[in-house]
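Submission checklist for the structure archive. All mandatory fields must be present; incomplete records are returned to the submitter.

[x] Identifier: Type 1 encapsulin shell protein
[x] Organism: Leucobacter chromiisoli
[x] Residue count: 266
[x] Sequence attached
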Amino acid sequence: MNHLLRGHAPITSDVWAMIDDEAKTRLTAALGARRLVDFSGPHGWEHSATSTGRVGPVVSAPSEGVIARARRVLPLAEVRADFVLSRDELESGTRGAPDVDFGPLDDAAKRIASVENAAIVDGWGELGMTGIAQASPHEPIPVGDDARRLAVRVAAAVAALKGAGVDGPYGLALGYELWVDAMGGNDAGGAPLLTHLTRILDGPVQWTPGITGAVVLSLRGGDFLFESGEDLSVGYAGHTAESVSLYLQETFSFRVATPEAAIALS
């Protein structure tokens, strides 16, 4: 028995497998930001902090000729999204129903993925995480109202990164509205906009729900560091005669090692 307490839930192993499959499907689609950064882990539920490789100021020790310095760490964020499933629906799953209503799980997956994406791109000051767009020293490039100009703006961002000595390939994280523009639009020459963007970047364009605007970043490695303690998992909180209370949970930290390796599109 671990901290997720799944063994206490009135859920069969087959239905647990259905829940896990549904969560994986929804999260894989929505966790766009982590695909563009260096991922380390998962290191386990007990892993609580990321080493920064730095120390604090010298302090005195209770013995002559001895000094001490505290090592600086970045605590992992513990993030949780609760949801409730109908026991009738779960029991239908035990009978082989192919259309079990996992709507509340899908909503929780969207919410927690949006939080992770936003932490990586826009930052989470309360938890000491600086986002990629926040950290960038480059002036943000305005996209404007014409979706056809998005490719030109992305090309300008790539040129700015190359000018700063940051090699590619590059990736592009897009919020909802710009993603719709990229998927449904054409560039000025009539080609699908998404095709043009991937050629400019020599890398992926990722749907990244939860972020504001967009960011172009280098995928050369070593610049943006995501550390996972417990990767996203489904846990059990309680149940009644009608429903089961569950949650999605993860722990993670994020650091920007090379701020100049990204540029925001505003």
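[x] Structure attached
Curator remark: The radius of gyration is 22 Å. Helices lie at 13-30, 87-94, 103-121, 132-135, 150-163, 176-184, 193-201.
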